Structures are given as C-alpha cells and as structure tokens.
Amino acid sequence: MEANELAFFGKIAAGVTHEIRNVLATINESNGLMADLLEVLKGTPFVHMDKFQRSIGRIEEQVRRGVEIAQSFNRFSHSVDHAFVHVDLNEIVGRTVALAAHFCRLRNVELKATVCDQPIMLFTNAFRVQMALTRAMEALLACRSGEGTISLATKGDHDPPSLDVRFVSEAGEGVSTEALAQSGEWREFEELASIVDIRYQWRAPGGGLAMFFCRAPARGQPAESK
Question: Exposed, middle or buried: residue 77 (CB in 10 Å: 0-12, 13-18, 19+)?
Fold first, then answer.
C-alpha cells in the first residue's frame, strides 16, 4: 500500500475504534447501574439474584476485554502515521499479542507475552515490525505439532535488545526449523525482518529462536521520522 493509503486506513481505523470504545463505555455504565440496583435489593427475596450478579460480572469482564482490544487496535492503526518512530519494543509485543491471540485460539494455541519492567526503545517502522512478528507467529502455527503455547519474552538487559520466541506443544515438543524454513509465512517474515533490520538465531533444537532488534534505523533508512 502507498503511504497515503496507509494513512487513510489509519485515520478511519482510529475513528472506528474510538466509536467502539464509546459503545463499550455506555454498556459499562448500564451494567454498573444494574449492579447498583441489585445492591439496593440485597436482602430482598429475589430468586434470580445469583444469575443476575453472575451476568453482571461476565459483562464487566467482556467490556474490559473489549476496551483492551480496541486500545490495541487503535495504537496499531496509528503505527502507520509515520514511517519511523521512537517506540517501546514491549509495547509492540504486547499490542501484537493482543491482536493475534484470536487467531491462535482458533488453532487451540495459547499466545502469551512476558515483557521487561523497563522500556526497550527502538527507532523503527512499528507497522512493519508488527507485521514481521505476526508472520513469525503464523509460521509457528502452521508448522506446530498439536496444541500448545507460543511464548514471547522481551530482553533489554543487553545490546542489541532481543525477543525470545518459542512454541511448546502439550507433549513438550518444539517446531522443526526445517519445516519453518519451507513455509511461506516464514519467508514473508524473513523479507520483512531484512527491511526493519531484525536478525535472529535458533536456540538448541526445539528451543525456539531469539530475534535481535537494532535501536536505530536500518542502513539506508532516514535518520528521523517524517
């Protein structure tokens, strides 16, 4: 997509997520009102009290989840605003996991992330980094053996900072690097990784891989955001 097309997509997506958050806020306020009314009725015989309270709790949890997804998508849509930005790797990983978790659940795979306590600041193309990470996870999903967990863990205590990525099946098996190398998703990851200067190395067999991120733009890229 051209830069102006991406900017248009980002503008529309940001507006839509803002409206979704307004809808969720209204649902949450109405749910809170019902909870207050039930509290007033506390002690009054009401055969369906427990069911209403459980329903209120479920609505509250789903609203919270919806707000988190909307926030992640809003930030994702704004990642196309500039070619290069200062961005926290922890934020990119958390956002990518939030948006990709649905696709993993459909394949009976749990997706989880562990991030550093301190920011890991990069100056990079956030949109392409997110695409690269998503393609890597899609490759793991395509080449996995059975159900299991994809885990991502950021590490900022060395230079360059890194991200450990690993799939472990319920039987304790990893993913074949040979199968990954032949998958279309992995080839797309490698193409994107070369653009945003992500290097990687495999751990011991079945131990996943470590991705290394350059803190500055890749060679030949602008020194500051436009």
Answer: buried
Check if CATH label 3.30.565.10 holds for domain 85-213: yes
| Other beta carbons less than 10 A from residue 28's beta carbon | 17
> What's the one-letter identity of residue 204?
A
d(CA 142, CA 123): 31
Closest CA to 27 of 49, 60, 58, 76: 60
pLDDT tens digits for range 156-165 = 988 899 999 9
Alpha-carbon distance of 99 to 164, in angstroms, equals: 19
Quote the tokens at residue 173: 């098996």
Which residues, 6 or more positions from 61, have their beta carbon under 8 angstroms from its beta carbon? none
Contact 175, 167 (CB under 8 A): yes
The secondary structure of residue 217, as a DSSP letter, is P
Q: What is the pLDDT of residues 176-195, one digit of tens each?
A: 888 888 899 999 999 999 99
Residues 129-139 pLDDT 10s: 999 999 999 99
Pairing mode of beta strands 162-169, 148-155? antiparallel
Q: How far is 2 from 71, CA to CA, in rounded Å?
A: 25
Instruction: Map tokens 């830069």 to a residue.
Output: 3
Delimit the domains of the chain by residue range: 3-78, 85-213
